[in-house]
Structure formats: C-alpha cells, structure tokens
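During the second year of the project, the team shifted from modelling isolated chains to modelling whole assemblies. The rationale, set out in the original proposal, was that interfaces cannot be judged from single-chain predictions alone. As a representative example for this report, we include one of the complexes processed in the last quarter. Its constituent sequences, exactly as entered into the pipeline, are reproduced here:
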Amino acid sequence: MSAIPVSASDRRPALPRRRLGDLAGHGYVWLVLIVFVLPFLTLLAYSVTGPGGTYAVQNFQYVLGSFGDNLWWSFRVSGLTLLINLLVALPAAYAIVRYPFPGKRLLYSILTLPLYVPGAVIGISLVLVYNFTYHLTTSVWGLVLAMAMGTFPLMLTPIVVALKDLPVAFEEAAECLGATRLQTYWRVVFPLIGPGVSAGLMLCFIIVFNEYLVTLFVHPPSVTTAPLRVFNLVRTAGLAPTTAALAVTMQLISFAAILLFFRVFGTRYLKGTYLI
Amino acid sequence: MTAEPVGLTLPGIAAEARRRERNRRLVGLGLITPAALLVLLFLYYPMAFIVQMSFTLGSSYLSPGGPEYSTANYAAMFSRYLPNVLVTLQLAALSTIVNLVFGFPFAYVLVRKIRYRDLVRAFMVFPMFGALYIAFGMRFILLPGGPATPILQAFGISSTAVLYSLPSVVFAMSIFTFPFMVMNIGAALSNVDPTLEEAAACLGARPMQTFRRILLPLTRSGVIAGILMVFGWNIGTFAEPVLLGSINEQRALAWTLYQRGVVQTDYGLSSTMSVVLLVIALVVSYFSLRYSRGALVE
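Output from the structure prediction step:
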C-alpha cells in the first residue's frame, strides 16, 4: 500500500447526492416556515387593503383611534401583571435556589402547575370564585391577578436558571468586602441575573399581551383588551381590514419585543423556557 | 495551631449552627410565601371550588335553600356530552400526529444542517402569539372570496366545505403547537452524536433503517415529551374550533363549557366539564414532565 497522505482539506466536503439531500432539507424547512407565517402574512396584506383594493393607512389610524382604548388596556394589564410577576417570582426563585427546603421539587411543581392547566379551566374556575367568594368581577385587579397567576411560572423558570448559574461565591465575596444584604442584591445579584429576569419579562409580556381566553372569562365589563376585541369582532362581526390591522399591530409589537431581546441578550437565556 | 477561642465550646457551635439553619429555613419560607399565596388563592382554591361546584345542580349554588348536591352532572357528561369529550381528544390527537410527522424531519434538519438557527427561531415565535391570530388568519384565507378561493375553485371544492371542517381546525392547531414538538425533538436530537449515524451508514444501513434503529430509539424520550406536551396544549383548544370548525361537529370541550357556564349560567355542568378537562390535562402533563429533559430543580 502506497501511503499517500490525504489531508483533511483534500477530501471532498460533500458528495453531490448528499448535497441534494441538504438542499431538500433546507427547502423543506423553508416551506414549513412559510406555511407557519402564512396566516400572519395574509392578515398583513389584508390589513392594508382599502375599499377598491387601494392602500389604506386609515386602517392603522383606526387601530390607534377606535381600538386605542383596547390597546391601552392591553398595555396596562400587561404592565401591572409584569410588576406583580417580578415581585412574586424574584424572591421565590431566590428561595428555591439558595435556601434549604424540604420537598423542593414538589414545591416547584406546585408553583409551576398553572402552565399545565387549560386556559378555559382557569377562566371558568376564576369566574365562579370571583362571583361567589372574592367579589372581584368589576375590578381590573381580578384580571391582572388571574394573568399573574397564569404566567408567573414563565418568569420563575429563567430566573431559577440564571441563579443556579451564579456561584454563591460572588455574594459571599460581596459580604466579606462589607456590603450589606441590600447592596449585595442590588449591585451584585440583580445585574448578574439580569438576562434571566429579562427573559422572564419578555415571555410574560408576550403571553399576557396576547391573551384572549382567560380574559374572555374574567374581564370586567368595562375592560376589553385588544386580543379580546379581535376575538369578539372575528366571531360576531365578520371580517374587516381594521380588525386585521389590530391583530397585525399586536403581533408586530410582540415580535419587536422578541427581536429586541434576541438582539440584546441572544437566545441562550431562553433555555429551559418553552420558547427554545 | 491556635487555641480555641474562649466561650466557643463544641455544643455551643452546634447550637448556633442549628439556630442559623432554622433561621435560613424561615427566611426561605418567607420569600416563597407571595408565590405560594398567588397560586393558592387563584389556582388551587378555585380548582377545589369547581370540584365542589361540579356536584351541584345547575345554578342551584345561588338558590336560597342552599346548593342541591347530586352526581347528575357527571351522568349527563357521559350520556349527552361524551361526543364533546371525544371530539376534543380527536382534535388533539390528530394535530399531535401532524406535528410529529412534520416536526421530526424539521427538527432533524434544524439540528444537523442549519446554521441560521436564530432566523428559524424568529419565524417560529409567531405561533406563540396565540392560536387566535392563526385561526383569524386562516379564516380570512379560507372564507369565500378570500385568497384561497381561486385555488380551491380550480379543484372544484367550495371554500365553505374547507373552512367549516375538521382539517382546517386540525391544521390551525398544528401550526400553534408545532414549535413545542420541534423544541422537544430538537433537544433530544442534539444530544445524539452525529457519528452514530455515519457509523450506521458505513455499515450499510439505509436512511430509513438508521432512522428506525438509531435515531428513533435514542430520541424516544424527546419524542414522547413532545407528543404529550402538544397533546396537553391542544386539549384546551378554543379559538380554532370556534372560528374554523362547524358548530355542530367540532364542539370542543373548552368552548362548550364557556357556553354552558358563562352564557347559560349552568355552573354545575360547566364545572363538571372543566373538571374532566382538567383531569385529562393534568394526567398528560404529569407524564410529559416525567419524559421531558428533567426537572430544573434537583
């Protein structure tokens, strides 16, 4: 056997047949992705049609005008929910990671159960309880607390992951150097788990901002969020370009939030959550 | 060797350690209390409440004589509303199959061949915004006069026959949950060493054989987790059957319980339906968690 040295770079990287397979693979992925965004794209196209097939910016002006109230409610409900989620999930995550507990796994399952309960079940059970026990039916807080309960596990998980990646040594070092407890949290812990917290905020925002099902059950009569308005209009009023414009606006805002997060933090902080 | 400080005897140190340990436990409990209260007040108590409610007749909970307790709701569930349960299970099962068939190759290409994964992820977030927009978009596509009408007419199909039908509902549900399936299978696939496939190919295995004998067994837990997760999410389907299905055939449980409970104020029956839905969802989720990539907190 003559020993002709074959360096790794000499070998053909891909055989033609294999390349054909790769091409088919990429084609398949793109086909699926297009089907995926097809509902969005057609709504986008529909939302800019006016009478007689003209372009219509009026549809989006209508969104800010007539639907402005609904959008504003969506933002307010999302904001309040995020605030509650943060106040609830931060200490809980810290306790789960840093403090000794009997039955920690069970506790974690108990806290994250809301993710596995169907929205309609959450909705009907809260409607009944708000009516008969809590008397919360006319307050927006009923809606906000329902949202917070349903989504705070989405906040909890990334924070738990971030805290687990943060060695206790940092906190101990800060304490040894004379930092108070608060200083340690504020100057050391929070900045270092920032990406995890942001991931939680982003996920919760997207879910709460677009939630229509639990809202349909528990919204007070005076509050109609934008996704609920979309649902009601599509179900009862037939289709209109303005409704499509509202749905498109909601999706674009959500998409912008995700893109912003990807840009600033990358995707690795979403590991363990259900997005990636 | 330094001498032991005066006053710190061994039992003293042990007692101090125990005291600190107890303190830490108390602080930990304090930190977790808000979260525990939130789920207790807004999830566990309401769940217990609907279980109680499911044994009361109609809206008799409000009657002055106190609630009438009976198991009539459960009897009605299995006599009159069994079709709703079956339709719900059928829709969830069909969309799970669609997700599996299309999701496995997708996850494979994504994990093994594609470098622009972040771009694909950006596409894949659209279904996360909710089934509502997907159902709305598909309704617009399929309505008579919509973009799909000319294509359907070319095949001689009327668009309402497609719109108010099982396939359109299943299709929308599949789009909604596709990312969950891809995520679970992809996570399992990325743990499989690519050299195993190459070895199989070198040993003369056809692609189908490699898939059946190597890939599928090694990703089994991911596949099962994906199946269960998708099924669990689709059990509670609401917007798709309402906007795309026919009212007489695709009567999903979530929609029926909304109708009975909120519109017709038959709290008892509505609670019974949600108890049934809840039990199915929790059983599925339990197994889904057992098969998924392991709990975060050990």
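Chain A touches chain B through 94 residues (CB under 8 Å). The radius of gyration of chain A is 25 Å.
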